[in-house]
Amino acid sequence: MFLKRIFQQTLNVQERIALPKAELVASIEKNRRSLELIDNWIDDVAFLQSVFNYGVPDFIKSELNKPIDNQPTYSDYIVAIANKHFDSVSYFEIGVSVGKNFFQMINGINNASFTGLDIEEINPIIEKKLQLKDIVEWDRMEGSIKKNKSSLRKYVSNGKEVKYLSADVWDQNSWSKLSGNKFNIIFSDALHTPEAILFEFEMLVKFNLLSEKFIIIWDDLVGSMKDSFYKIIKRYDKAFKVKDVYLLNVNGWVGQHEQAHTIGILSNFEV
Question: SUPFAM superfamilies, per this entry (predicted)?
């Protein structure tokens, strides 16, 4: 415990990202326009057939469709960072849920491809906005609570490639389907357990999925989740040359309708 505290104290953990105001405002405006394209994120039939109700708690379900104000959300920060720091983006989201953040990324990030991973099937609400090009299926992991076969769907949206991997996050075989990708922006918002985020990072390393320049964002980083965040930095700092570490208190997918919460960010470049 003492050594862990010493390690955490030596980290330069920042609590504010110095993004130019104009760039953040542009991202906010772009994301709010994206959200206006969908008035209802809930597909009742899909929810009945789901594993975890698409990760939507009952207390959030009533807030999901409400308009959000112009206070920055994590979605706004991700879009601003993407468009500022990358000429080309390969975006990976772990835990897509109904796709509210994923949809904003697709519409908000220029010159990009997108991959989402979730145990649920893709939300029909956002699938209607995409053009399906291909689908491959395989048996789900033995013992998984997933109801259907695992699958990888490929779409196009305004010339951008979009992939959706419907699989159990613990299924290494499904992770292997992503081999050959090099992601430079990763957003983790799946199981919200310390074991899960460690496993996710191990899969990124095992299947060589990290680009030479990358940034990773974790949602809801509190308690033991934060301990796993520090473990990742300590374990992989030398290999990946971690440059910036942030713990930010920001609004999430329902904006001001939910209390702001902590996200963790690490990158191997200066944000």
Answer: S-adenosyl-L-methionine-dependent methyltransferases
Q: Starting from the edge strand earliest in sequence, which strands make up the sheet with 160-166, in order?
A: 13-14, 244-250, 261-267, 210-218, 183-188, 89-94, 112-118, 160-166, 150-157, 131-138
Report the percentage of the chain scoring pLDDT > 90: 92
Residue 169 has a pLDDT of 97
pTM of the model: 0.95
- Which CATH architecture fits 2-267? 3-Layer(aba) Sandwich (3.40)
Distance between CA atoms of residues 189 and 202, nearest Å = 16
Tell me which residue of 266, 204, 260 sits closest to 69, measured CA to CA.
Answer: 260
The domain limits of the chain are 2-267
Contact 254, 219 (CB under 8 A): no
Tell me if 120 sits within 8 A of 99, measured CB to CB.
no
Higher pLDDT, 216 or 238: 216
Token output for 9: 């104290």
**Cα(176)–Cα(207) distance, rounded to whole angstroms?**
6
Spatial distance between the Cα atoms of 260 and 17, rounded to a whole number of angstroms: 16
What single-letter DSSP state applies at residue 143?
T
3-state SS, residue 54 = helix
CB 69 within 8 A of CB 163: no
CB-based contacts of 126, cutoff 8 Å, min separation 6: 38, 98, 99, 102, 103
